[in-house]
User: Fold Transcriptional regulator, MarR family protein from Paractinoplanes durhamensis.
Amino acid sequence: METERPDLGAMVMRLGRRLIAMEEPILARHGVTMWAYVVLTGLRDSPTRTQAALAQSIGADKTRLIPILDDLQKRGLIEREPDPADRRARLLGLTAAGTELHRAIQAEIRVAEAGLLKDVDGDAFVAALRALS
Assistant:
């Protein structure tokens, strides 16, 4: 075992910073912040959620999430409706425009990721990340 390599945490943090730096210009071209993209992804993965459930699943404070949701709703990218089971809660979902925007952003991110992974076995790397996370 190699003892002089950086710790996994240090390498993952550097990779995380590199990925964020790679994604930020893509998001900016689409007029979306990183947190807005995280919200769109969360709603894509689970289409109808309460604001509280979404906040918990993406690791965001629900009070800090409200301005992001307001902006996405104003732009016609998400819908917020009262929950019939609890009118104090709001159900969230992507609109067709939100789904289309998310797909466009993700397609560009995948192209950038492919460039990053060109010198490694990308499938094995992604499989290892899934297993470890």
About this structure: Residues 8-29 form the longest helix (22 residues). Strands lie at 49-50, 78-83, 86-94.
